[in-house]
Amino acid sequence: MSLAVHCKNVTKIYDTGGQKVTALNRIDLDINIGELMMLVGPSGCGKTTLISVIAGILDQDEGTCELFGENLRNLSGKDKLNFRARNIGFVFQAFNLLPSLNAAENVSIPLIINGMKRIEAERKAVTILEQVGLGERWKFLPSQLSGGQQQRVAIARALVHNPRLIVCDEPTSALDHETGQNVMSMLKDVAMHKDRTLVIVTHDSRIFNFADRVAEMDDGQIINVKGEG
User: Fold this and answer.
1) Most C-beta atoms within 10 A of its C-beta, which of 64, 194, 196, 219?
2) Which residue in 64, 41, 45 sits closest to 53, CA to CA?
3) Contact at 8 Å (CB) between 100 and 118?
4) Which contacts qualify for 8-14: CB closer than 8 Å, 24 or more apart?
């Protein structure tokens, strides 16, 4: 099976006021194309740092991390930005929707970044909003939407440019149980197909059953992977 992510001996150390903190300690992790992988563990265990390295937002200090066979650390800043813009969709814990833009305008942002004309981008944004059940609310501002609806807009924004990897940081943490289950079902239905990979950081044990595999982290290390082989 082809790999979306290949991490070998990945180490990341932060220097905080002269004190060194090892956020990632010789991480080995392979994630398959077409897989939904969850990273779980207590706060401060390194989950967000790991997805930031995987997505090329942070550079590791040691080791190798390849995304679809590309070592992002070897790319120039501009090439890395272009690679991320084409290949990665992000769903943030706080949604990160721009309050002055309506749903379609928020969703169209990745397309505009990739050079699509605004009118075409917003037309495509409405189409993807229809897929996540918000076609009739494409003109609504974030303040006019519920938390679950804002999360669906954020997911539509992550999907609209058809990325190969979608990274989600606590996608259900601000949602009640039923809404969280609905969002995960929608992610599984709309986002997953054989050529796309999802990596989800979560504390929410209620959604673990949606994963193909669950990697447990603690103290900067992966201590167990459930669902392998």
Assistant:
1) 196
2) 64
3) no
4) 8/63, 8/64, 8/65, 9/62, 9/63, 9/64, 10/50, 10/53, 10/60, 10/62, 10/63, 10/64, 10/65, 11/60, 11/61, 11/62, 11/63, 12/46, 12/49, 12/53, 12/58, 12/60, 12/61, 13/61
Quick one: average pLDDT of 196-215? 92
Angle at 111 between CA 108 and CA 117, to 5 degrees: 90
Cα 178 from Cα 36, distance rounded (Å): 20
Phi, psi of 128, deg, nearest 5: -70, -30
- The answer, yes or no, to whether residue 129 has pLDDT greater than 90, is yes
Domain extent listing, the chain: 35-44+76-226
Any bridge partners for residue 40, and if so which? 216
C-alpha span between 121 and 127 (Å, rounded)? 10
CATH superfamily of 35-44+76-226: P-loop containing nucleotide triphosphate hydrolases (3.40.50.300)
Among candidate residues 71, 61, 60, the one with its CA nearest the CA of residue 5: 71
| Of 13, 85, 15, residue with least CA distance to 53 | 13
> What is the C-alpha separation between 49 and 60, in angstroms, rounded?
9
pLDDT tens digits for 149-200? Answer: 998 899 999 999 989 999 999 888 777 888 888 888 888 877 777 789 999 9
Strand partners, 21: 14
